[in-house]
Specification:
Layout lengths: L10 E4 L6 E2 L1 H15 L6 H7 L4 H8 L5 H11 L8 E2 L3 H10 L3 E5 L4 H10 L6 E3 L12 H10 L6 E5 L2 H10 L3 E4 L5 E3 L10
Parallel strand pairs: 1-4, 1-6, 4-5, 6-7, 7-8
Antiparallel strand pairs: 2-3
């Protein structure tokens, strides 16, 4: 793992789940509640693990094909908080965003979660990014680069000067397709982070 980041950058784009929060058990409960209410088979832990993080469009195609994307996302928005007791927030999230702002660095959260729900989760984590980009705001969610490009547009920075921090191959592929450097959070990347605290030594 590098001791210093050998590039300059103007903004940091964070994946939400697996980096700032852990909502894996929340989503498992939510999708099974949706399956029961909407009349679909239950979703096994193995299948959920295989599809985790794919975004609501693919959720609809795989689990809820008789319903529209809008209906699925409305269910998510209306019922997510019913299961939020299982949500975990990474330590030091509020301080991290304060430190980035003090260093005049832009920040954004980029997530396959629909934006309205993502905003609620960002608030619950006490994060204060300059922008939040949800999966329903772009033509293609991660691993496509659209979300990175939109966040950079909103922040007024070049993708080449925006560090993407994520924990999955979807994040890594999105960053690379957009031409942005990628810091892997406990995963492979151009640079690697074992904790969010390490990021502050780079900025």
């Amino acid at each position: 793992m590098p001791g210093a980041l050998p590039i300059g950058f103007d903004a940091v784009l964070f994946d939400l789940d697996g980096v700032l929060i852990d909502s894996y058990p929340v989503w498992f409960r939510l999708l099974n509640a949706a399956a029961a209410e909407l009349g679909y088979p239950s979703i096994s832990r193995e299948l959920f693990r295989e599809c985790w993080g794919q975004g609501s469009r693919l959720d609809r195609e795989r689990f809820f094909p008789r319903h529209t994307l809008e209906q699925v996302e409305r269910y998510y928005h209306d019922h997510f908080l019913d299961h939020v007791v299982a949500l975990e927030v990474a330590p030091g999230v509020p301080e991290l965003f304060e430190a980035l702002r003090a260093r005049s660095l832009g920040s954004a959260v980029i997530t396959n979660t629909p934006r309205a729900l993502a905003v609620q989760l960002v608030r619950r984590a006490q994060a204060s990014p300059d922008a939040v980009v949800g999966g329903d705001e772009v033509a293609a969610a991660k691993p496509a680069p659209d979300m990175v490009w939109l966040a950079c547009e909103r922040l007024g920075v070049s993708p080449a000067r925006a560090l993407v921090v994520g924990d999955s191959r979807h994040d890594r592929e999105a960053a690379r397709a957009a031409g942005a450097p990628f810091a892997g959070f406990k995963t492979e990347g151009d640079f690697e982070l074992a904790s969010l605290d390490e990021l502050l030594r780079w900025v």
